[in-house]
Amino acid sequence: MAISLRISIPPLTRVLLVLLVGFSLIYQAESYRQRPRAPSGSSITAAIVLVPQLSIFYPWVYLTCTLAEQNIVTLAIAGATLFYGGRYLERAWGSAEFGIFILVATLIPNVLASCIYILGYALTRADSQAFPSIQGSISIQAAFLVAFKELVPEHTVTILKGVAKVRVKHFPAVFLAANTVSGIFFYTYTAAILCWLGFLTSWIYLRFYKRQPDLSGTGTGLSANRGDASETFAFAYFWPDAVHGPISTVADAVYNALVALHICVPFSAEEVESSNEQAMARGEGGLPSLLAPGGGHRSGAKREEAERRRALALKALDQRLQAASASRQSPIPPSLSGPSDTHQPVPRDDVGERERGDPLEA
Prior knowledge:
Layout: H1 2-8, H2 11-34, H3 43-46, H4 61-64, H5 72-93, H6 95-124, H7 138-151, E1 156-159, E2 164-167, H8 171-185, H9 189-208, E3 211-213, E4 222-226, H10 244-260, H11 269-285, H12 299-328, H13 348-356
Antiparallel strand pairs: 1-2, 3-4
Helix pairs in contact: 2-5, 5-6, 5-7, 6-9, 7-8, 7-9, 8-9, 11-12
């Protein structure tokens, strides 16, 4: 049983799980030994978790702090996230692409969170921001939800044996809302900051930079496109339908400003169409069970999911084509609509001769 379990876990996910358990147990043991003093005062914990003022002496903590959980409960949640989510994503993308994604979702949020705390302390001189401890896998959890939103947004997850059904595309917004409320009322500021930074960082990377696998069936390996320009992965589609309009307006304004500043490269019509095709191809594959590879009862759900994704992609493509057609058409005055617009006016004498008949034209 142990051998089959070990083989079923991809290599990078296996390494991350080992590091997660190791760093978390070391941190928790050292924290218990250091009581009642602050854990961040220990040289051992300072070499594992991120303390912004001390990170200059331990630069590797920008990576290790994500794999150091404070207690057994958060360790179990992080372990389940890496086991199920990491196993699926590494098999879908490959170890190399999955490793880049983990680095992006870990390093950038931790660096930005460190800068936020340093700036906050410089402005307020608050003791709570003097030596904060930044740690935990919240950023990875948010990034995994964004990745699943890209791969299988219309997949329905059944909770508590059918008591509740939630589509994957709604999980990122629910996760962000839960961590934001927790940060406001339970003062878990670090988790809320890492959640938002992990969400934004992973979406920007997947939207604009990640090389997409070729899932269309016409080739192998990676496609030539970078990023995911599909309509279903736009920023507005992460939120409820009622607020799509306002969020889309703001997001488009920010995107157009970044394009004007040459920070982002606009997607071409071919890239959007190709990304929509890739989205439909991913939808046809569905989301396999994370517990067992078999199960013929899921075929109906996969077909239903594929149909939903295809309908969304076709609707978005039709809207784009109509908008492009409307922009190309412009009203033409009646006086310019005839074929004689491009010719010089014919003199009246010539008209008379043509009416009488020209022997050269007979």
